[in-house]
Every structure is written in C-alpha cells, then in structure tokens.
Amino acid sequence: MTAPTYPWEPRCALETELRAFRASDRFWGDEDLEDEARQELEALLTDPNLPPESLQDALDGIWVDHLGAARLWNTFHRQYEQEHRSATPTDPPLSPVTITSRPALDDLDGFDVVGDAALPPEDTAADRFLNLWLTWPLSQARVPADRCLAVGRRYELLMNIGESLVESLLAGSAQPFPDDLLDPADGHWLTVSVCSDDFSVSPAHHHVFLPKEGGSWVCECPPDGPGHVCENEHRGPYLRVPVVAPPESGPARLRLLVAHRGHQLQSATLTAMVAPRETRLEGAELVSAKIDYTLTPGFTGIAALPPRTAAIRISQAGDRSLTVDVDGASGAVSIFRLGELQTAGALDQARTALMAVHVGVKDGKRVNLLTPDNGKSGEAFLTDLKNLAGIGWDLFVLIAPRSAQRQALRDVLGGAAQVQICRQEGMDLTFPWALVYDIPVVRGSRWAHCEQGLDPELPLGTRECPGADGHQLNTLCPFGFWGYRHIIEQPPSRSEGQRLALVAGSGEGDPAMTVALSTALDFDETERHVTDLHRRFGGRLTDHTARDALYDALVDAPDCLYFYCHGREPKTGRAPGHSVLEIGKSDWIGPQDLAALDTRWASWRDASPLVFLNGCHTVDSGPATWLSYADAFTDLHASGVVGTEISVAQTLASEVAELFWQAMLDRRSVGAALHSARITLLKKRNLLGLAYTAYCSSSLTLRPTAAAG
C-alpha cells in the first residue's frame, strides 16, 4: 500500500502523526478501519487550507462517528508516543513540597482481604501524590496559575506521581495517591485518561509506570509486556498530554483520571479561564486544580480483585450540568453532557415507571398490585416489562446519544460485565443504572418475546440470556437491563484516613445486626420479619424503636445495621427535598444528624458496618439533595450502603432483605447477593429487584470470625 506524497511540510505535530498513521500498512489497511473514515481522513490530509488548530476538532468528530477508526487510532497513538517519547533536559526542574507526616492509623496498618491472602506487611513507604500542571509545548515552561489561556492555543498537560511539588496545581490541596491499593510488587502500570467537553483532547489511554517506591515514569516499554527493558536514561519523569484550549472565552474544565485494571484510583479536575489572548492578572487564580475522587487511601490488596470491564465517571460543572464519560479497556467509549433539568426529568420518569410496577389506584386509594408472594401474573409482567424497557432505552440513549456511542457501549458491555460507577466527590445525584436497557425499542411497534430470557427455570446465577444472539429491535428480555446482566458497583469517594472495605464487621464473633424499626408499619409483618432475621442471625440481633436508644447502641459499632422503616418527606424543620428515616412512631433521622455523630461513633472506623436502608426514598438523591445517606454513612466509615430507589411494599421489602442478608451470611459478596435477590424476584415475574442499589465495592463480604479466618 503506497502512502501519498504531500506538497507541503506538516503544519503541526498532529498532522505529522496523522501522516504516519496513513503510512502504516498495519493500521491503514486494517479491516476495522471503516471506508468512510478512510475517505474523511484522506480529505484532511490533502486539504491545503485546513487550519492546524482545526485538525484536532475534525479528528475528534471522525473518532466519535467511527469507533473502529477510533480504536485503531488509540492503539497507534500509544505506540507513536512511546517511540517519540524520551527524557530530555527540557523537563522542568521542579521542587518537592515539605509534607508533614500524618499520624498512622491503627486500622490502616494491616487489613485482611477476601480469600486466603495473608495480611500485608506494614507499609512504611512515604506518601506519594498526584502532581499536575500546564506548560507551553515549545519552551516546556509552566503556565502560571495567574495567567488565563488563549482561545484555540495548544498546551501540554503534565502529570506525575511522587513527591508533592510546589509547582503542581494540586500542591495546596494534596491528597496522598492511593498506591496502597496496589499489591507490594515491583510496580504497576497505571492507565491515565483525560476527558473534557471544553478542551480538545485525545481519547487515547496513556500509560505511566509507578514503581514500588519513588516517582512514576514513562518509557517505551509496552504496558502488557513481560517487564522493563528500558534504561534509566530512556525514562521520562512526566507524562505529557497535548490539549487545545476551547475556541471561545470563558471557564473551561478537564478531568485527568488514573486507573489500574479498570479501578479508578484517583481523579482531578483542572479549571482554567480562557480569553482571546493570554493575559496575566497577578495574584488571581485563573488556572487551578483539585482532587475530586479517591477510591480509597490506605488499603492493600485490591490488585487481587478481578479487573473491571468499564468505568462510568460522572462530574458536575459549575452550572450543575453533568459530564459523563464511559471508559473501556482501550479508551473512551462515550462522552457527553447532561443538563440538570434533563437529568431530573429522566430520573422522575424512571422512578414513576418503577412505582407503577406494584402501586395502583382503586377508589382513590393506593393498592398493592403484587400477589401475596410478591409475584405478578404473566400478562401483567409483560406489561411491566414493556413499560420499563421503553424507559430503560430512553436512559440508554441519554448516556449514549449518538449511534456510534451506543454501538461502542454494546461492544464493551454486550456480555456480563463488572462496571464501576465513579461519582465525583460532593456530587448529590444518583442514577438508576440497573434500569438501563440496551436492546433498541421503538414504542408502538410489535414486540418480540425472548422465550429463553423469560424462562422462569433459569438458574439464580444467570447473568446472560441464552438467546442473546437472537435479540433484535423491540425484543423483550430481562437481560437487556444492566441490573440483570452486569454487576454494578458504586464506591463513593473516600476522604483521607478512610479505606475501601472489602469486608464488613469486626470479626470478633459471628456477624451481628442492629435493627432500627418504625412502629408505623404493619405490626404482624414487622414481627414476622424480625423473627425471621433473629433466626438467620442466630439470635445475634437487637432492635430499637427510639432514636436516642439507637444512637446509644451504635456507639459500639455493629457488623450490620438495618433500617426497616419509612423514608418520609418531612413537613417542617428540614430543608426541602430531604427525606428522613422514621424510627418508632415519629422519631426522625436525617443525613445531617448522622454527620454530627462522627466523633461519637469512633468504633465504626474499625468495624466498618454494612448498612441496609429498607425504606422509601432512601438513596434516590435528586438535584436538590446536598447530603445523601450513602455519603453520610460512608463518611462514618460504613463499608457499604444498600437502599431503595423508590417506595416499596412492606412485604416486598421484607423478602428482599431476607434474601440479601442470607446471601451475605453465606459469605457471598454484596454484588452477588443483590443480583441473586433480583433474579429470585424475576422468577416470580417481579422486576422490582431493580429498585435496590448498593454503594460500595461489589466484592464486599461480611468479615469471618477471627477463628474462621
């Protein structure tokens, strides 16, 4: 295959790289490169009037429309960077910040992990930090924080992990990089991605190597290779990512995310003011950055977890719109922005549809549409499935608005997968990911029933439809919902001194439970349910119907904390949009109340209880909610929080809890326990297992007793 000749010299570095891509028989001749993409790339390469600053935007459009071309470009770009990257004398000499060492926390010295792994040795290595700043590409000089960027100008985003550097935009708010998440090997390859809907950035993954001690480096060695063959002088201390400022003035944001095997370790948001020309305003903070998500500081052993198939990362802009990017193994799959009202409307519609599964109105009163065993008739089930499939497809289009993005998501998440949701620290919005339905739906058209997916004899562990190859337009199949096909984990961002828990409870004896009860529920069903839990926990259960007595009991952290109550919207005394948990007859507990108990419940730091909120509207944070229960309990060192997206009938709430807690007592993980409860209900033609959500690692289990461990 003959590459064309060009009558002009490359006008920018990106054009040079694109010409190299065109000249590569391996990539240009690959059958995955769409013919239309070839034509569009040829047009760019042969356009003598194309401004260099417009080339990146044109390429980004091609990558979005042609996913085969995007994947090939990502692979080529990584190789191209490795071939042309080396340490140079122009690397800016940066100075370390003097960091006062933090007192060691006893609970972080050693932490056992799932399986037979031994306790890790005490970590005595110094903290390392993510460093981040912008430079001018030619001079390699750092862009001062008091200088605005110029529209359309190219910069380089530099990052490394090591000592905290005074020049870093994160120096004033440095948080230790969670390198303790990595097992004590010689080091690890980390994946770095940059995403923005303001700056022009490459969708490619970048790779840095973090040794067991010392700072990170970049080199020419392939991340999936057998090891390092490079010499020290071939290594560069900084990863350099080209970025182009937006074409219009105003604030602009980008996020840099660092991952290991699909686990998002830490991310930072950079914000810059952009003007027609660069201007310095002495003393102003025109370029800044902050850490916005940390999976966990101070935990060892996550490298033993299976890799995650994809990560969905959510951040919030100053106007409260959401930027969501879906990241797969080879790069970004989908990046888009959602407005606050658009998101709120979609969530309201989804929860209304879920409520309609089991709540009807007769003679002006609400009635439970479920049978006494929490099932439904076949005809009613198909009606529910049609309604929820339509809503779920709307959600899928919302997170992947373009055809190429939807196909890319299917390529990444077509089979059973492990999906990690990373919600930016401080964000107050949850999303019904379990309800997303990715089989195309056209309302008003004829439906096709997937008999294999609807078979009630499918095993409890089923996560893929045996008849998936036959799915087509308007196919009704439960496994089109992400909640039945995927294990979805939503670990909240952890603050310094906290850990990502893979086990809950103290381990001092068999797991015990504290129950907070509402007396406004049906008495007979409450008594039956609590008696059942007493039996399952072998009598290791105490229940409380008064708020102050519950607060006193929780000074000694339980292994499991279970709220079986109403979640209500208070009429007075609380901010609008905030639900409260009703204990006893009229005692209320709000997330703000929990925030006041962090010093009183200090024992939670060691026990890391698992919390189940089995009430109405307990984790359905909306745009007006500023502190959710999931975040409040996480801040108290809970290992995980499970709750309902909607109001649920009491008998249904009882059954889900009994299924979930029994699976946990059988040493199953939270992800597996929640999934088996969903499938059990599905076998009864009940879709309301999708109404329950877990905020924790999907691998979380109850800690075995010390003797058993």
Describe, in plain words, how this protein is organized in 3D.
It is a single chain. With 709 residues, the chain is an alpha/beta fold. 26% of the residues lie in helices and 22% in strands. It is built from 17 helices and 30 strands. The strands form 8 sheets. Strands 2, 4, 6, 8, 9 and 10 form a 6-stranded mixed β-sheet that branches. Strands 22-21-23-27-28-29 form a 6-stranded mixed β-sheet, with helices on both faces. Helix 3 (35-45) packs antiparallel against helix 4 (52-65). The longest helix is centred in the middle third of the chain and has 22 residues, at 378-399. The radius of gyration is 27 Å and the shape is globular. The termini are far apart.
Which percent range describes the beta-strand content?
A: 15-25%
Shape descriptor reads globular
Counting DSSP E segments of at least 2 residues, the number of strands comes to 30
Structural class label: alpha/beta
Distance between the termini: 62 Å
Q: Helix tally?
A: 17
Q: Percent helix among the residues? A: 25-40%
> What value does the Rg take, in angstroms?
27 Å
| Mean of residue pLDDT values | 82
Unreliable residue stretches? 85-125, 298-302, 623-627
Can you summarize the main beta sheet?
A: 6 strands, mixed
